[in-house]
Amino acid sequence: MFIAICGIEIHKEVFTLDSATCAACTYMMGAANEAKKTFGDAIDMVEYKFTLKENIARCKKMGVPNLPSMYINGELKFRSLVPSKEELEGVIRAAMK
Questions:
Q1: pLDDT of residue 11
Q2: By the 8 A CB rule, do 39 and 6 touch?
Q3: Cβ contacts of residue 83 below 8 Å, gap of 6+?
Q4: Residue 91 CA to chain centroid, in angstroms?
Q5: pTM of structure
Q6: What architecture (CATH level 2) is domain 2-96?
Q7: β-strands 8-16, 47-49: how paired?
Q8: Cα 42 from chain centroid (whole Å)
Q9: SS3 label, residue 51
Q10: Contact 65, 75 (CB under 8 A)
């Protein structure tokens, strides 16, 4: 996912097997969508599904250890465990500083 907030570009990426078929991936995307509700139009999100060939190279480049995973500004922030709404919003706000 890519996020632009208050003129500061923050890169947020979520790597999933496929949020339509993987329960944990669905929950991770759900957490990301909740953050979208909080930050509104300031957030632009993109999901990288491992089931799409073009996304496999990105997963390898980022060194994604597990699916689902969430990276913010190129750093792994959440791996397999889905963050709470408060936890994810706190990480996004910290990245804004």
A1: 64
A2: no
A3: 31, 70, 77, 91
A4: 11
A5: 0.83
A6: 3-Layer(aba) Sandwich (3.40)
A7: parallel
A8: 15
A9: coil
A10: no
Q: Which two tokens stand for residue 43?
A: 């957030």
Residue 82: closest CA among 21, 32, 17, 22: 32
Of the pLDDT bands very low, low, confident and very high (cuts 50, 70, 90), residue 73 is confident
Write down the pLDDT at residue 4: 37
Q: Which residues pair with 33 in a beta bridge?
A: none
Is a pLDDT exceeding 70 seen at residue 51? yes
Domain positions in the chain are: 2-96
Per residue in 25-45, pLDDT (tens digit) is 999 999 988 988 887 777 767
**Do residues 32 and 78 touch, judged by C-beta distance below 8 A?**
no
pLDDT at 97: 76
For the chain, give me the number of helices (H) and strands (E)?
A: 3, 6
